[in-house]
Amino acid sequence: MTSRTKPYSVGQNQRQETHALPSALQRRRQEALERYLAGDPIAVICHEMGCAKSWLYTWKQRYQVTEPAWFQEHSRRPETTPTKTPAALEAEIVRLRRALSPDGSGPVSADVIRDHLRQHGGDSLPSRRTIYRILNRQAKEVDSHQKTGTKIYKRA
Predict the structure, then answer these.
(1) Residues 1-50: pLDDT tens digits?
(2) What residue spans define the domains of the chain?
(3) Long-range interactions of 92-99: CB distance < 8 A, separation 24+
C-alpha cells in the first residue's frame, strides 16, 4: 500500500496533526531513513524494502531531526483557487435565473443571464460555460434537497 492509495490513516485530517501511533507506511518511512542514516546503501535499502529510489530520496529530503512529524504525508491540495468564481457572482447568477423565470416555466439560457450581467455592469463577466456549470450545480443541489423517493426508469 502506498501513500497515494491511502494518504491518511484513521483519525487524521488534512489540516490537523495527530499524535496517534504512526501507521505502517509511516513506520516504513522511518525504518528506511534509519537504515540510510546507519550507512546502508540506498540501492540495497530499496531492493530489500521493495520501494523505488525516488521514494526514498523524497523522504530523505523531508527528513529533519528537529521536526518530529517529518514522516507524515503532506497535503497535495492547493491552498487557494484563484480562478474560482466568487460566491457573490454565483449568487447573482442564481438570483437572475429565478428573477427571469419566477414560475420555473422555462429554462433561462446562459446567454440571457450573461447579457443581463453585461448590461448591469458586472466587474467580471463569466463565460457561458461557467454560467451553465453554476446553474447545473445549483439545480443538482436543489434536486438533492427535494428528492423524497427513488425514481424508477423504464425502457421504451
Answers:
(1) 444 444 444 444 444 444 455 688 888 888 988 898 899 998 999 999 88
(2) 24-62, 87-146
(3) 92/117, 92/122, 93/117, 93/126, 93/131, 93/134, 93/135, 94/134, 94/135, 94/138, 97/135, 97/138
